[in-house]
Amino acid sequence: MAKHDNKFYADRAKRFIPGGAHTYSKGDDQFPANAPAVITRGKGCHVWDAEDNQFTDFALSLGTVVLGHAYEPVLEAVRNELVKGVNFVRPSIIEGELAELICDIVPCAEMVKLAKHGSDVTTASIKLARAYTGKERVIRCSADAFNAVHDWFIGSTVVDRGVPQAVKDLTLKFEYNNIDSLSALFMQYPNEIACVIFEPISFIEPEPGFLQAVKDLCEINGALLIFDEVVSGFRFSLGGGQEYCGVTPHLAAFGKAMANGFSVSALAGRRDIMELGGIEGEQERVFLLSTTHGGETHSIAAALKTINTLKEYNIIDHIWKTGGLIKQGLSQAAESAGISDLVEVGGYDCKPAFAMLGNDGKPCMITRTLFLQETIKRGVLMPYIVPSFSHSPQIIDGAMEKITEAFAVINKARKEDNIAGYVEGDIVKPVFRKYN
Ligand SMILES: Cc1ncc(COP(=O)(O)O)c(C=O)c1O
Predict the structure, then answer these.
(1) Is residue 101 part of a domain?
(2) Same structural domain for residues 97 and 201?
(3) pLDDT 10s digits, 379-400
(4) For the chain, what is the domain count?
(5) How confident is the model over 18-37, as pLDDT tens digits?
(6) Residue with CA at minimum distance from ligand 1 atom 2
(7) Member of which family (predicted)?
(8) Is residue 362 part of a domain?
């Protein structure tokens, strides 16, 4: 039990942190008024707030905690490294060990550079592509919700305040599964495109031949293909979305699930491109990635243990099955509560998606707020779904009973034509919006 109540910690965070959290998707505007204001600890797929209320967690720290909170074998590996010191003036042994392991597993990986955040490595991949091709424009995919916290990406969203126009002009967008939208950009900007970067697979299935067609277009036009595998990596398959889809990019960026919540990311790619960031040969140098904390040993130990555990116990398979159960459970719960028309369930089983809809059949923030409020009341945290090794069928069944009750409240509210009236605070908002 924490020393103070939830409100104490929430007030302090709001006073001293812009947005009240260091990640926008954790902010108050993303959750209903009754959401736990802080999380004090987690174990498996459960978390507790400052007042010791327990929640079944389906979000698992933005999708990072693939084995579950405080997974003991990972903690043990971390402890073993911690006592030896955490960072040194020369590389540690395990930096090389992790880089080699990634090269064994990931199809595009011939060399690897480690960092801390997914954004570190997506942005480094852009730098490398620009250096390799001598071109400046970047094409990203309009379907990707996020690729980096840096200006090249944020400048291409609605929240572009503070990003120079010259930077914004360099990022273009194409549509997923629409190869014509990509070839139109290559035609519009001949010899100017350094790379195409996007999530190879997310919620929608790539049409047959689409990813290979993107690669072909890149190669014909002298651009690099970069897969943002920060989410798809170590989830769709051990070798990531590229292994699952059978198309190997020139570079790829990994993060999230690779260290069970510890901060490790990796840029992986073809040797001749990656070597531009090296210090050998006569070439002009590229200042690729150089981070004080990139070699932090206990995080790297966490990544090694996580990846080896995923591999040894075929946990990717478990994750697919678990996600399938969650999707099935949600659909059944919606049906038995009589609101199938208000709940859209989709996505791949390893990365399910759901949307709460309005009476017009479109995603609705009011219905979403009521869903979050009523599930949180019943001890379930499901802002989004990230299946993990820690979600057992029994836990999922228990959560689905609670979700069915929450859906029943939504049905009652809908019958009274008053969903908004049942919401006990502000309506949640999208992260990417122009004004507060
Ligand atoms: C697809 C994708 N790429 C990149 C990132 C950036 O990762 P990070 O927040 O670790 O910088 C995210 C973060 O959510 C992401 O979802």
Answers:
(1) yes
(2) yes
(3) 999 999 999 999 999 999 999 9
(4) 2
(5) 999 999 999 999 999 999 99
(6) 147
(7) Belongs to the class-III pyridoxal-phosphate-dependent aminotransferase family.
(8) yes
